[in-house]
Every structure is written in C-alpha cells, then in structure tokens.
Design a protein that fits this description.
By secondary structure, the chain is mostly beta strands. It has helices at 34-37, 237-250, and strands spanning 2-7, 14-18, 22-25, 41-46, 61-62, 70-71, 80-86, 89-94, 103-108, 115-123, 129-137, 141-146, 154-156, 160-162, 172-178, 184-188, 191-196, 206-211, 223-231. Residues 1-27 and 93-98 have low confidence and may be disordered.
Length: 270
C-alpha cells in the first residue's frame, strides 16, 4: 500500500514511499512528453493550455500543444471551462450537450492508416449515443457509448464495431491502439480490457474533425474532457506505456494504473 507519494520537478523525477521499501527514481533529464518525444504525435490538446478564462466561461478556442487549435464559432455550441473540475488541475467540461456543443478543426491531416488515441475524460452518463471524436475525411468516429447497440464503446469506420467494453463514469484514461485490418486494443487506466478486429480499413483522417460529437455535430458527448492525444500510427507498447504514464501522473490517475504497469510507481523521464 502506498503511504506517501511526493511529486518532484520534472528534472528530478519522483520519489515513492511504500510500507516496506522506498522506490526512488531520480532522472538527470526531463519528464518524457508525448508531444515532444513521440514522433507519431499529430495532435495534443490539454486543458491546462487554456489561459485567460474563469470557471464557467465559454471556450471559443482550445489551443494546441501539437497539431491544430480546436475552435467553436457559435456561442451556443461552446463547451464550458472548469478551472478546478479535477482537484486543482484545469479541465475542459463539455456539459449537457443540449444543442451541439463541441470544438473542431478543419486542418487535421494524417498519412497513416493506423492510429492511437488517448483521452483523459470524465463522462457524466453512459447512455445513448455519445461520440467523443469524429472526422469527415476517413469517416471515423469513436463512441464513448453507443446506445443503439449494446451501449459499449464503439469504433466506426465502414460500420459500427463493438469493442465489447462497457463505458463507465468517473475520471479515467482511455487508450485505443488501432491497427487497420489487425488487432486493436482498448485500455482503461492502463489495463487492457479488449483486443480484436475493431478497426478494419486503413485510411487517412482529417477534414472537419470534432471533439465532443460526430463529424456532423450529432451524437454529442456528455461530460468533461481534459486531454486528447492522437498518434499517426499504432504506438509501440513502450511509447504507449510512457504516454499513459505521463498522462496518469499529470492528471492524478497514477494510482489507477495496475501494479504491473511500467509507470505505476514513477513518471516516465528522458
């Protein structure tokens, strides 16, 4: 059982105190970062890059760390900024989608037919049809839940593909490592929940790309989103684990990682 966890600056790593032993990881470099250190990363949005807004303000622009800014020009369709939704860490809350709340870009572009998606999010509900992500080019959608089927997490390419993973509410890290025509894995908080042919046809994605709904603005998502990372390629297990470790430690999810995870006990560093 963990007695004490002390986060140190990125240049010194982290010290973790256990009942029976102390594990200390002091790196001489900096903290590993998916936007800087994963050459496949084409999009990285994190809510702590949103500046100048007060709690409850509308988000007109979610600035990129990597890739493209996501924007919403229609005031009535803008999600709300929540300054302290998760402890003291900012989170972008996309609440109640009574209309078509979402943010979007028209400039996302890719070359690969394989993908890895990472979402740090906090769904309010697990019913109905709720699309986290959708693109016009490639016609790909990622559903947090698809109620017209069994209510599970779905991936849509040429058809709706049931991952068999039931959605849950609460703060979580979702990883989808997608290989066209091969094996796609679904992981929650670093634990693999499913593996199968859930994504079949290689395709580039892009065009109008929306977070919080389908590419057409329908099937809106109900809940918070704090991070979206997209890799143009199926990340290796090493890169995947580092990305999960980075996101888990940054957003306070490290204790939700399984004990077997490479970064349950310390954050990834260079």
């Amino acid at each position: 059982m963990v007695q004490q966890v002390t986060k140190q600056p990125a240049t010194t790593g982290v010290s973790v105190q256990f009942q029976s032993e102390q594990i200390i990881y002091n790196a001489t470099g900096r903290r590993w970062d998916p936007g800087t250190d994963n050459t496949n990363c084409i999009q990285f949005l994190t809510a702590d890059d949103i500046d100048g807004l007060a709690d409850g303000d509308q988000v007109a622009t979610w600035p990129k760390r990597v890739g493209q800014d996501f924007t919403q020009g229609t005031a009535g369709n803008r999600p709300l900024y929540r300054a302290t939704a998760w402890d003291t860490t900012p989170a972008l809350e996309t609440v109640d989608f009574v209309s078509a709340d979402q943010v979007q870009t028209s400039s996302l572009s890719s070359a690969s037919g394989d993908w890895t998606f990472y979402f740090v999010f906090n769904p309010d509900t697990t019913t109905g049809n709720q699309s986290l992500f959708g693109t016009t080019t490639g016609a790909m959608r990622i559903y947090h839940c698809y109620g017209s089927g069994t209510g599970n997490i779905y991936i849509m390419d040429d058809s709706f593909r049931d991952t068999g993973v039931a959605p849950t509410t609460g703060k979580q890290l979702l990883t989808l490592n997608m290989t066209a025509g091969g094996t796609t894995t679904v992981r929650r908080n670093g634990t693999q929940l499913a593996s199968g042919s859930f994504y079949m046809t290689a395709r580039a994605i892009g065009g109008v790309t929306r977070l919080g709904s389908t590419e057409g603005g329908g099937h809106t998502y109900d809940g918070d989103v704090s991070v979206m990372v997209i890799s143009d390629g199926a990340d290796s297990s090493t890169v995947r684990d580092k990305t999960e470790g980075y996101l888990a430690w940054y957003w306070g999810l490290q204790e939700s990682l399984p004990f077997s995870h490479a970064y349950r006990h310390y954050m990834p560093t260079i």
